[in-house]
């Protein structure tokens, strides 16, 4: 039974709209690692959990609230608990089996990122604007460890044993979670403007990062592979015939395909592209771009959306790709107008969109 309703309406591109989305800006989303359940966090303090069918049909299954806007969500390894963090300076855990919500972490400022660490029975990592990362054993009320950062945590991701955090001063800190309180490496972002997102490779060998200036960089952790690092421009629109009149948009999210390792970029221009990083080729162009990082190829982009794309997620097999169409706050409070859409679209991926291209 759905608590929100059901929906199978599709757009011209045959992407399905998620039933009964949040009524305020959508900030984050995450698929369960064990089933096709999607958690969606928003500025109206809610986390909504949906069941998604193989053809894009959806129904609401549960909802819980924070005491402020939600900025980040994640699942535990077993897929039976959802974690959220946000402006109320706490992280909360929702148990899908009992329906109970529990506060499990606290900071002195907003919790910008929550990530589950699959080690030692499971640890929750929280990154905050209070310039710390804290590690939480859910059986304890205080953190098992704390890391001081040089600046506010703007973005963080984990693929064990790799943890990467991007801070407000364009610093990127890399941690080996076998030694979680000691920085393994600190780099200054190769991108000239503020870091918007970091996303770890599924292999844990490196990470992608995007900036507010429409650029993406792929970075390997092992310095022996530094020759494979690269960056590129994306999410830009030329106005008229002059290349000097280009509108530049933020890269809001990067999601890696869990099987093929290709990746998507989503931006403030309402575009998502699929890319092949090996051949450096875009696989598909439009709303969302999917990339193959090895070939450095854009594989495909979906048709442009009627608003910014703040966040994206693949399901556990990579067969379903979810993307939100909502205000991304890139223009501050003044840019938040009543006509901004708030919806989540479900795209059923095809092999030619997400599989790597042969090297030339």
Automatic annotation (TrEMBL):
It holds the Pfam family ANAPC4_WD40. SMART domains: WD40. Keywords: Repeat, WD repeat. Residues 1-23 are annotated as: Disordered. WD repeats lie at residues 63-104, 104-146, 244-285. The keyword Repeat applies. This is Anaphase-promoting complex subunit 4-like WD40 domain-containing protein. Residues 29-117 form the Anaphase-promoting complex subunit 4-like WD40 domain. Residues 1-11 have a biased composition (Polar residues). It comes from Rhizoctonia solani.
């Amino acid at each position: 039974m759905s608590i929100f309703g059901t929906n199978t309406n599709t757009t011209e591109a045959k992407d399905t709209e998620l039933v009964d989305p949040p009524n305020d800006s959508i900030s984050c989303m995450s698929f369960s690692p064990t089933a096709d359940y999607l958690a969606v966090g928003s500025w109206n303090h809610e986390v909504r959990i949906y069941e998604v069918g193989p053809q894009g049909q959806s129904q609401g299954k549960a909802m819980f609230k924070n005491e402020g806007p939600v900025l980040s969500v994640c699942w535990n390894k077993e897929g039976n608990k959802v974690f959220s963090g946000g402006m109320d300076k706490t992280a909360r855990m929702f148990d899908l089996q009992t329906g109970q919500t529990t506060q499990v972490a606290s900071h002195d400022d907003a919790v910008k990122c929550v990530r589950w660490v699959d080690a030692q029975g499971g640890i929750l990592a929280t990154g905050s604007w209070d310039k710390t990362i804290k590690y939480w054993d859910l059986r304890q009320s205080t953190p098992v460890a704390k890391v001081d950062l040089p600046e506010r945590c703007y973005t963080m991701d984990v693929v064990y044993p790799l943890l990467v955090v991007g801070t407000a001063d364009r610093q990127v800190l890399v941690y080996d979670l076998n030694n979680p309180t000691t920085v393994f490496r600190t780099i200054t972002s190769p991108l000239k403007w503020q870091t918007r997102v970091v996303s770890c490779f599924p292999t844990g060998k490196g990470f992608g990062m995007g900036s507010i200036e429409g650029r993406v960089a792929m970075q390997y952790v092992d310095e022996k592979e530094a020759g494979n690092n690269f960056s590129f421009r994306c999410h830009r629109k030329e106005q008229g015939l002059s290349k000097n009149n280009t509108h530049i948009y933020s890269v809001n999210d990067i999601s890696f395909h869990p099987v093929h390792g290709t990746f998507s970029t989503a931006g403030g221009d309402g575009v998502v592209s699929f890319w092949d990083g090996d051949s450096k080729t875009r696989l598909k162009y439009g709303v969302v771009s999917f990339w193959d990082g090895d070939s450095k190829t854009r594989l495909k982009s979906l048709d442009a959306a009627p608003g910014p794309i703040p966040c994206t997620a693949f399901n556990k097999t990579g067969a379903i790709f979810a993307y939100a169409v909502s205000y991304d706050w890139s223009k501050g409070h003044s840019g938040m107008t009543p006509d901004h859409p708030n919806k989540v679209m479900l795209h059923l991926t095809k092999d030619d969109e997400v599989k790597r291209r042969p090297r030339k």
